[in-house]
Design a protein that fits this description.
single chain, 3 helices, about 55% helix, Transcriptional regulator, BadM/Rrf2 family, WH-like_DNA-bd_sf, WH_DNA-bd_sf, Tscrpt_reg_Rrf2
C-alpha cells in the first residue's frame, strides 16, 4: 500500500476543514456549499496522488 498525499497532510495539519464561514453570526453563508464541494474535490485528488508517484517524477526530472 502506498501513502497518499492526503494522509501526509492530515498527519501534519489534522483533518479540520480549510473553510470556516462566520459571516454575521449565521451558521451558514452563501459560498459555504461551493467551498465545501471544492474542498472535497481537492481531498479526493490528494487521496489519489501517491507519494511514490511524486518521488518517481522527481527522480525522472519530470515536472
Amino acid at each position: 500500500m502506498w501513502t497518499a498525499v492526503l494522509d501526509i497532510i492530515h498527519a501534519i495539519e489534522g483533518t479540520a476543514s480549510l473553510f470556516h464561514c462566520s459571516l454575521n453570526g449565521h451558521a451558514k453563508c452563501v459560498i459555504q456549499d461551493v467551498m465545501v464541494a471544492a474542498e472535497r474535490a481537492m481531498e479526493e485528488r490528494l487521496k489519489q496522488q501517491k507519494l511514490a508517484d511524486l518521488a518517481d517524477k522527481e527522480a525522472a526530472g519530470t515536472p
